[in-house]
Structures are given as C-alpha cells and as structure tokens.
Amino acid sequence: MNERLLVLVRHGQSEWNLKNLFTGWKDPDLTEKGVAEAKEAGRKLKAQGLTFDIAFTSALTRAQHTLDLALAEMGQTGLPITRNLALNERDYGDLSGLNKDDARAKWGEEQVHAWRRSYDVPPPGGESLKDTLARTLPYFVQEILPCVLRGERTLVAAHGNSLRALIMVLEKLTPEGILARELATGVPVIYRLNADATVASKLDLAG
C-alpha cells in the first residue's frame, strides 16, 4: 500500500522577520540564517529517509527559495512543483512593511495584539486568520490532499498562517487552539494520513 505522506515546512527566516516587520504578501527573500534553516530542513528530511513525488509552495519568494534549497539538500531538484497564491501568507494590509513596535505606537498595544492574535479580526485592508483559512483550505482539499491520498509523497513549503490553516484541519484544532500553535521557521512537520484523511502519525523535527 502506498504511503500517504504529507510534510509541511514554514519558510526559513526572511529579511523582514529579522527586521521585525509585518510581511504578509510583500516579497523579501531569506536571510543567511533563513538559507541555513532551509538547507537544514532538507538534511533533516533526508536523514529520515524521506523522498517526495510532488511539492507545493506559495507565490512568494521566501517559501519558493526554502523549497528549492531543501530539495537540493535532498538531491530531489527535478520534482514537479506547483506554486499558488492560495498558500501565501496572511495579507497584513496596511500593516505590511511596518515595524511591529511602530505599529503598536500608532494603534496601541491592545489593537495590534488583536490584529495579530485574534481569529477573526482583520487589520485595515488585510486578512484575519479566518480569512486566510477560507483562502487556503479549499486549495488544500481540492489540490493537495488528493495527491497525498493517492500515495504521492507530498511536501508543502509555505508560511506560518497558511500552514496553520492546514494544521487546524489535520489536527482538528479549535480557533483558540490554532492561535496558540507556533510554527518555527524551517522546521518540517511530518504527517502520515489514514485513508479517510485523518492523521495516523505526526513527527515534528524541531531541535
């Protein structure tokens, strides 16, 4: 029987992560640390003896670069890769490009915290986590999950919030549960699924 393998990895540290800026759909590349994290993700996956048949990533450079570096470390550079903005990071709207401390000075600690950490309160001109879920989940269900259930070993390199949308469904988390879920940059999470798309096992390669 084919293995129903799904691996999720958040992109390595980006230039704007380093500068403490809201990034969203803006398109900075990886820092040197981010490049190292992406390569390390590939090494960790290779050490697990994993190979992939197909990969998905967002329309943003930092996720694409992470995927390319990880696959290169694994010797899997010829893989079919699908890029789609459905997997993009949450759109932070008017906050995009702002330093998080400057945003707090402008709108207040409480308001910025609500935008960052509530489930359904969007920042001005942007998306809430609920909005991001509404964009990402249909793509996962229609395009990614069928590959996994067919036995195609699938790697997804994307972003903290778009991956939270997938994790929320896979792990049956509540809105409160997904808000509390942190995803480290460049750390693969390995899922093996049952035939009904429930999770048979999960392995987080942090550390």
Automatic annotation (TrEMBL):
Site annotation (Transition state stabilizer) points to: H159
SMART domains reported in the protein's UniProt record: PGAM
> Which HAMAP family does its entry note?
PGAM_GpmA
Which is an annotated GO molecular function term of this record?
phosphoglycerate mutase activity
Q: Tell me which species this is from.
A: Tardiphaga robiniae
Q: Where does substrate bind?
A: 10-17, 23-24, 62, 89-92, 100, 116-117, 160-161
Is Isomerase one of the keywords UniProt gives this record?
yes
Name the GO terms of the biological process aspect. Answer: gluconeogenesis; glycolytic process
Q: Which UniProt keywords apply?
A: Gluconeogenesis, Glycolysis, Isomerase
What top-tier enzyme class does this entry carry?
A: isomerase
Q: Where along the chain is the active site annotated?
A: H11 (tele-phosphohistidine intermediate), E89 (proton donor/acceptor)
Name of the protein this chain belongs to: 2,3-bisphosphoglycerate-dependent phosphoglycerate mutase
Question: Family, per the entry?
Answer: Belongs to the phosphoglycerate mutase family. BPG-dependent PGAM subfamily.
